[in-house]
């Protein structure tokens, strides 16, 4: 609703919704940004951008198409081989909201409650359905689903990727599976194939 950027001796305030506008109504400590304020804002943002150690090697708008071409990429098996299926990446992600539903019945069998609990698509039993079939039983398929959801499905549904670039999943993954490393690997493998070159998956996944 409201985004604050620390400019040192002041803050730049960006309003992103009607709720944010209402929140700031009557606030007497705000003023319209001067050219000097705007220059300081762009300077601070440039410094923040330069502080990112890892970034995509291609235009993010190409990501849905890249993923669409990479459904059978060997990258997924490589990630599945090292993934611990612990679910840490989805637990710390601000945009992960998958859940499970269960019914809890009391001892009289006459009353109960339906409970919705936070869940993770990286846990083995997440995609189990009636009859015991598991649509994503392998860690490779679960990793692929996670990255497709972030970079393709949510873009197609909402117009924005499901990753905000916060790096929480990268910081918490014990085997260092990260969005930038994964997406860059897919891009490198595609570029190599288009140029008639051979690139090993292990090389593509290097920082």
Task: Explain the layout of strands and helices.
Blueprint: E1 2-6, E2 11-15, H1 18-24, H2 35-50, H3 63-68, H4 74-82, H5 88-92, E3 99-105, E4 112-118, H6 139-158, H7 168-172, H8 179-194, H9 201-204
Antiparallel strand pairs: 1-2, 3-4
How would you characterize this protein structure?
This protein is α+β, with helices and mostly antiparallel strands. The strands form two sheets. The chain has a two-stranded antiparallel ribbon with strand order 1-2.
Integer-rounded radius of gyration: 22 Å
Mean pLDDT, rounded to whole units? Answer: 94
Number of strands: 4
How many H/I helices?
Answer: 9
Supply the helix-strand structural class: alpha+beta
Question: Helix share of residues?
Answer: 40-55%
Counting structural domains, the number is 2
Percentage of β-strand residues:
5-15%
How are the strands of the biggest sheet laid out side by side? 1-2
Name the overall outline.
flat
Order of helices and strands: EEHHHHHEEHHHH
User: Regions with pLDDT < 50 over 5+ consecutive residues?
Assistant: none
Main pleated sheet:
2 strands, antiparallel
For the terminal residues, how far apart are their CA atoms? 35 Å
Give a quick rundown of the structure.
With 207 residues, the chain is an alpha+beta fold. It is 43% helix and 12% strand.
Q: What are the salient characteristics of this protein?
A:
2 domains, 207 residues, 43% helix
